[in-house]
From TrEMBL:
Its cofactor is Cu cation. It comes from the Eukaryota. This is laccase. One of its GO terms (biological process) is lignin catabolic process. Its EC number is 1.10.3.2. Transmembrane segments: none annotated. Residues 16-130, 143-295, 406-536 form the Plastocyanin-like domain. It is found in: Secreted, Extracellular space, Apoplast. One of its GO terms (molecular function) is copper ion binding. It catalyses: 4 hydroquinone + O2 = 4 benzosemiquinone + 2 H2O. GO terms for cellular component: apoplast.
Length: 553
């Protein structure tokens, strides 16, 4: 997993197929790409265009999403099922065109159909073009993908099916993983623990990806400081820290120096979670080993790093709030100042009446759990994708009435809220944006059902996180504290428990783009919507036509 820093390919073959893997003393078949878990790494230069032939030799439908890749004017290969394409059926294939633009750093790819992304995922490494000045930090000795994930002993499809059947919570995962391995603290795992071998005095670049399905994670290395230099495919002002916080779907580029006495040290990852009433928690710790080269007697029990406690919200968001864009002459940023489209959206867990055979579900008071944005619990269309309906002007597939403001105003973060507020509207409503409009979205978390954090992801765009806070957003006071100078550029914004977060971006990428919570259970429950960005006036501002082999419905 150590990579040279200057090589890339423009063509990849992804064969989706089942493979047998053993973890935690038991063996099961999992869905993979090319038999690998985690899957193969894609390595490109800034501005490249590549082609990935996705061939489905599995038993279920599949789609692949290139997370954080903006795909200018070309959502046809973006991947979310029934949003930009119908799934690739078993036995079929789809040659996906992936267009990189300004992204530089670490992104990732993953399945975007059902819950397949638990095992169908891998890293995307985007290096500076060889003719440029290179990294805005000293060249590391080597770079290493670190993919944080989750493992269930049972088939993850069964976990999803049980969630849908019961209307309750999904079963908690049985382990967290680092590069596919749980590590020494789990049974039957020590012999396969991921080990990173380093030379004393050298610097290493970790490309860290949170591929976990539902959990925000802490990560640290015993006795070693971490210096964050990038987030979600964009550079940051260097931030030195003893630990990082990373939400599902996010990536971080992290430098560390091998500057300790040669020995063995643990890398470790554990959960951050706050929702006591509605979380089945995996409270275990994944480990990997940092091993120095040299002649020494290795310690029998490597030291574990400091990790904040499971419910340490202050530590989690202190790190998140410390991130800043590089924002210098070589890497300028352009934060929209004159907002032309403003959206205030509640982010809520909800309940719906139970509709199973017994009329008794496992949500609160026998209800079925749901989730919403602005009280809209999104229902995906089938058997047609929204992008096809938009491009072909097919009526009746979706509405254009996603609200700019919540239908009910209440004390969003109060502890006790009327249960009548828990019931959302269900539908397929999208938000239409004019081309090049300056957009601000304020996400307001609520304590309906249970307060928790929400990592919200927008396809086709990165956005500036200009502010966040706890409690109810104050439209008079809170904007005075926005960071409009060097806010971090992210593909996912963390909406804190009982709090709010504000993002800004310019809608300069025409097409159909999915927005959703990156906690898989919340996505399944309906915490999602779609932005349709209209064409601009010039040919260079218009949606490109579809490829010839787009999967049929």
């Amino acid at each position: 997993l150590l990579f040279s820093l200057r090589s890339a390919s423009n063509d990849y073959l992804f064969v989706v197929k089942e493979a047998s893997y053993t973890r935690l003393c038991s063996t099961k078949d999992i869905l993979t790409v090319n038999g690998q878990f985690p899957g193969p790494t894609i390595r490109v230069f800034t501005g490249d265009t590549i082609f990935v032939e996705v061939s489905n030799e599995g038993k279920e439908n599949i789609t692949i999403h290139w997370h954080g890749v903006r795909q200018p004017r070309y959502p046809w290969s973006d991947g979310p099922a029934y949003i930009t394409q119908c799934p690739i059926k078993p036995g079929a294939s789809f040659r996906q065109k992936i267009i990189f633009s300004e992204e530089e750093g670490t992104l990732w790819w993953h399945a975007h159909s059902d819950w397949s992304r638990a095992t169908v995922h891998g890293a995307i490494i985007i290096q500076p073009r060889p003719e440029t000045a290179g990294y805005p930090f000293p060249e590391p000795n080597a770079e290493v993908p670190i993919i944080l994930g989750e493992w269930w002993k049972q088939d993850v499809t069964e976990v999803r099916n049980e969630l849908l059947r019961t209307g309750g919570l999904p079963a908690a995962s049985d382990a967290f993983t680092i590069n596919g391995q749980p590590g020494d603290l789990y049974p039957c795992s020590s012999s396969e623990t991921f080990t990173l071998t380093v030379d004393e005095g050298k610097t290493y670049l970790l490309r860290i990806i949170n591929a976990a399905m539902d959990e925000m994670l802490f990560f640290s290395i015993a006795n070693h400081d971490l210096t964050v230099v990038g987030t979600d495919g964009a550079y940051t002002n260097p931030l030195t820290t003893s630990y990082i916080t990373i939400s599902p779907g996010q990536t971080l580029d992290v430098l560390f120096q091998a500057n300790q006495n040669p020995n063995l040290y643990y890398m470790a990852s554990s959960v951050y979670s706050t929702a006591v009433n509605l979380d089945f928690i995996n409270n275990t710790t994944a480990t990997a080993v940092l091993q120095y080269n040299g002649n020494y007697t290795p310690i029998s029990s490597p030291p574990l790093p400091y990790l904040p406690s499971r419910n340490d919200t202050n530590s989690a968001f202190q790190f998140i709030g410390s991130l800043r864009s590089l924002a210098n002459e070589d890497h300028p940023i352009d934060v929209p100042l004159d907002i032309t489209s403003s959206i205030f959206s509640t982010v809520s867990l909800n309940t719906l009446p139970c509709e199973n055979d017994n009329n008794s579900c496992e949500g609160p008071n026998g209800t079925r759990l749901a989730a919403s944005l602005n009280n809209q619990s999104f229902v995906e269309p089938s058997p047609i994708a929204i992008l096809e309906a938009y491009y072909e002007r097919i009526n009746g597939v979706y509405g254009e009435n996603f609200p700019d403001f919540p239908p009910y105003l209440f004390n969003f973060t109060a502890d006790d809220l009327p249960t009548i507020l828990q019931i959302p509207e269900q539908g397929t409503e999208v938000k239409v944006l004019d081309y090049d409009s300056a957009v601000e979205i304020n996400f307001q978390g609520t304590n309906l059902v249970a307060g928790t954090s929400h990592p919200i992801h927008l396809h086709g765009y990165s956005f500036f996180v200009v502010g966040f806070g706890f409690g109810n957003f104050d439209e008079e006071k809170d904007p005075l504290n926005y960071n409009l100078i060097d806010p971090p550029l992210r593909t996912i914004v963390d909406v804190p428990i009982s709090g709010w977060a504000t993002v800004r971006f310019r809608a300069s990428n025409p097409g159909v783009w999915f927005m959703h919570c990156h906690r898989e259970e919340h996505l399944t429950w309906g915490m999602k919507t779609v932005f349709i960005v209209k064409n601009g006036e010039s040919p260079q501002e218009r949606l490109l036509p579809p490829p010839p082999d787009v999967p049929p419905c």
